[in-house]
Design brief:
- With 508 residues, the chain is mostly beta strands.
- It contains 4 helices and 36 strands.
- Strands 24, 27, 28, 29, 30, 31, 32, 33 and 34 form a 9-stranded mixed sheet that branches.
- The longest helix is centred in the last third of the chain and has 11 residues.
- It is elongated, with a radius of gyration of 34 Å.
- The chain starts with a strand and ends in a 9-residue tail after the last helix.
Length: 508
């Protein structure tokens, strides 16, 4: 009559007008493992069952019982039937540790294991309620009612609005049965691997039968969760921050939609639904390391522009010559290690670096370069992720607004699930070598400073058209070749003058 799944075993309650009321324990293949006497004296014994993660529970006309699933021992928790006549349909809410019970056509009672009642919910208007299950995702009840043809229909009941949602699921006549009526019900996320199921028992001819129906793919739900303040009390006039977590682990590419449902005792708006969308894109992780000559000192770069607050919050490569229309931006610079924005371009070719022309470009993305040379996305710590699929050799180009751009001399190395390349470890790491790459420390190589107009050459135009016009200014300027926040003589004398005549070997 009643049933439950305890995470490992299926349980069934059996009784009748004569004989001993029993509990039956099955494995999920349907083999009977054991049977126990309920010790109850009511005509039909325990009806529907529920599981709190440790014990099974059930009720009848005379009381409410706790069942040890290891020994089958039954303990009376309280006597009486909550005014329902019989504790028949039963469900458990793991968030509140409360139960819900009903009998045929009654109201729904919320109570705890001691019998303390917390709420009474409006009768759903059904006349044959026998089984019940709590949906841990929606916070609604599934009521197994004796309606339909056959008389085995689930109805979804919203506890906040105290009404049926309009969603119903008909259990069809199962193979081997000539008729069937509803019994107990359960909800489980671990009976069938990867699936959320609504299950129960059918009282049928010629056999009583367990069943489970798929409510959804478990991966369709686990991407969205509440990790902080999933329940609580909000003081009058106050607020409570709720943390919603999106997790794409194990999901196929595509768009996933879901809802965060906020239930409350607000008499006007008892339920607020917040739509959520997750787009899972294909992609590769690219982990690049490079140095800029201008701010480099000793073994890393100095974060002058960051310290003075000069770094813009929107990527600066949306102008000529890059004309990059990416929307990368931040509310604030994410950490004190950020040096500046850079633009990373990926090129794919079956050949070597000499064939990695601009026509082979497959994607671009702006990110931050940190003082240790790591290039990261706008969160200030994670590597760049590109929505591309690689089948040939992958090369990387790095642009900076006043340094010569560089192209990797070799394909990026795939290590695990990341493409990795270090431009700093040698002259030969950059296509063209010393012509567009400079040793900035013993064995340390960096991008050459002085290309203020970003035409790929360090020439008089960078001095006359950029540095000279900006000289004396403080802020975020292309003529500030050492990137200390000031356009001054040392930018010209110590960087532009030494590097003049060099050019980038990025292939158009």
């Amino acid at each position: 009559m009643g049933c439950e799944f305890d995470g490992t075993y299926l349980w069934f309650t059996g009784g009748g007008s004569s004989g001993t009321n029993m509990l039956y324990k099955f494995d999920i293949s349907g083999s009977l493992l054991n049977s126990y006497s309920q010790g109850t004296s009511s005509s039909w014994g325990i009806r529907d069952m529920a599981f709190d993660g440790t014990y099974l529970y059930g009720g009848d006309e005379d009381g409410f019982y706790q069942i040890n699933q290891t020994t089958g021992a039954v303990t009376t928790m309280f006597t009486g039937n909550l005014g329902l006549g019989t504790i028949r349909a039963l469900a458990y809410n793991p968030t509140t540790s409360h139960f819900y019970a009903a009998n045929w056509d009654t109201e729904i009672i919320e109570f705890d294991a001691s019998g303390t009642q917390y709420a009474t919910y409006t009768a759903p208007g059904l006349t044959g309620m026998y089984g019940m299950a709590y949906d841990e995702l929606s916070g609604n009840l599934w009521i197994f009612d004796r309606t339909g043809s056959p008389e085995t229909t689930f109805y979804e009941y919203n506890l906040s609005t105290q009404s049926l949602t309009g969603v119903s699921i008909q259990v069809p006549l199962l193979s081997g049965l000539t008729d069937q009526i509803n019994g107990g019900a359960f909800y489980s996320a671990n009976l069938v691997p990867g699936k959320i199921v609504l299950g129960g028992v059918l009282q049928g001819t010629a056999n009583d039968t367990f069943f489970a129906m798929e409510l959804g793919d478990l991966s369709s739900y686990t991407w969205l969760s509440i990790t902080n303040n999933g329940s609580g009390t909000v003081p009058e006039g106050g607020s409570l921050d709720v943390t919603v977590h999106f997790d794409a682990t194990g999901l196929d590419f595509g768009i996933y939609t879901g809802e965060v449902v906020v239930n409350s005792n607000d008499p006007v708006n008892p339920q607020v639904i917040v739509p959520c969308t997750l787009e899972v894109i294909g992609g590769i992780t690219v982990n690049l390391t490079a140095f800029l000559e201008g701010p480099f000192s000793g073994s890393d770069m100095i974060t002058y522009l960051n310290m003075f607050g000069y770094i813009p919050l929107i990527q600066p490569y949306n102008t000529t010559p890059w004309n990059y229309n990416g929307t990368e931006s931040v509310a604030s610079i994410p950490n004190s290690d950020v040096i500046d924005w850079v633009l990373v371009e990926l090129r794919e070719t079956p050949g070597d670096a000499s064939s990695a022309t601009s026509g082979m470009m497959i994607d671009r993305q702006a990110g931050f370069i940190l003082k240790d040379g790591t290039i990261v996305n706008t969160d200030g710590s994670s590597p760049l992720v590109f929505n591309v699929e690689i089948t040939e050799n992958l090369f990387a180009v790095i642009y900076h607004r006043n340094h010569l751009g560089i192209l990797s001399a070799y394909p990026l190395t795939l290590s695990g699930d990341e493409y990795i390349y270090n431009f700093t470890s040698g002259e030969g790491q950059v296509y063209g070598g010393m012509i567009g790459h400079i040793e900035i420390g013993t064995g340390i190589w960096g991008m050459m400073a002085g290309d203020g107009n970003q035409d790929g050459e360090i020439s008089n135009q960078d001095k006359d058209d950029v540095w000279l016009l900006e000289n004396g200014n403080a802020g975020y300027y292309s003529g500030d070749f050492n990137m200390n926040g000031q356009v001054e003589t040392i930018d010209k004398n110590l960087l532009w003058e030494i590097n003049a005549g060099n050019c980038s070997y990025i292939i158009d």
